């Protein structure tokens, strides 16, 4: 029996990832993970996934933790790290173990990222990993009578030293330590460092790879997307959250309020979690955003003006058939839109012919300023899913200018007699639109 691409889950996954590959290229992502990830036997797999991000054109900044490595050094030296009010107290005696533990963790990360061994996902890769004194710190000082000594907090991030490396395609690695202008070193929280770096760079994404199973709603279902208000409610509510998740939620809120577009909380123990979160529609973690950035949704009557403005230039050129406001208002239920900060930047419509198990994809338009960013592919995938949900088995499209775009996405040329009877009667021979069909798997 022959095998077809339509039944190959690997091909389907790769096709679904394509829009995100285009969308993420050239973007800046700050990825934070703890020392637990470094100590795990699965760490090489995570490194491979990070390297793949870089090879796909993502500008990657890594911020690593070192808690287990520091604790191992302290134990070997017969010392322990003390805590007060949830903060570490790093005295001079413990600082040498902190420095050594961070160095152990950093060395392991650098070694893994430098590998280029045949028969592994790193084969043939040549990643340049850079670091430096990019984080300027200050002491936490004395709080409630307690001197936190060498425990510090971020004062500023030297973005001018980081950006040139990202521009050259280098991977920037940042450790949970910082330096004062007087040359002192401070022990820092990796979550705080990652948040500060993301804010300073105005990163497109801040990604926390967690040691927990992730946020869930009251019915124990994964929370795939929440806004700032929901994140703040989680912190202030009665729900039991791990200390790690609380730190990350605080970081997410701070980041979103300071220019970071999206923050992701992801269980790093899921195989391929980083790639699944970034290159699939549903992801495997929780996305936290300001809520007004960009989202795909069904069109509403209030969107009519925005859709008309979007399609008017193409109607004037004869690319699209003209639609009156009245017609669009009547047909608004067929449309889906992508809204970005209140602007309709893309739309598409699905008209079903249930008697013949076929649907028409129509009026697929992307605003000129947002083309070549994967929005067309996102809308196409959405329309295909809507069609499947309605039990339709095929899609067809009529086009005069974009034949190649549809052919590249699995549509094949068709004939008029393959159209539904009702649609065949409305075919405009003067426009002579080409017909393309796609079977939905």
Molecular structure report:
There is one protein chain. With 441 residues, the protein is α/β, with parallel strands linked by helices. It folds into 2 domains: 16-292, 3-Layer(aba) Sandwich (Carbamate kinase), CATH 3.40.1160.10; 296-439, Aminopeptidase (3-Layer(aba) Sandwich). Helix content is 37%, strand content 25%. It has 15 helices and 23 strands. The strands form 6 sheets. Strands 5-10-2-1-13-15-16-14 form an 8-stranded mixed β-sheet, with helices on both faces. A 7-stranded mixed β-sheet has the order 17-18-19-20-21-23-22. It has a two-stranded antiparallel ribbon with strand order 3-4. Helix 1 (9-24) packs antiparallel against helix 13, helix 4 (67-76) crosses helix 5 and helix 8 (228-236) runs antiparallel to helix 9. The two termini are 18 Å apart.
What labels describe this entry?
441 residues; alpha/beta; Carbamate kinase; Aminopeptidase; 2 domains; eight-stranded mixed sheet; elongated
Secondary-structure map with pairings?
Blueprint: H1 9-24, E1 28-33, H2 35-39, H3 43-55, E2 59-64, H4 67-76, E3 82-84, E4 87-89, H5 92-113, E5 129-130, E6 135-139, E7 142-143, E8 146-147, E9 152-157, H6 159-167, E10 171-174, E11 177-179, E12 185-187, H7 190-201, E13 205-210, E14 225-227, H8 228-236, H9 243-256, E15 262-267, H10 273-279, E16 286-289, E17 294-298, H11 304-317, H12 325-331, E18 335-340, E19 343-353, E20 358-366, H13 375-389, E21 394-399, H14 403-407, E22 412-413, H15 421-424, E23 434-439
Parallel strand pairs: 1-2, 1-13, 2-10, 5-10, 13-15, 14-16, 20-21
Antiparallel strand pairs: 3-4, 6-9, 7-8, 11-12, 15-16, 17-18, 18-19, 19-20, 21-23, 22-23
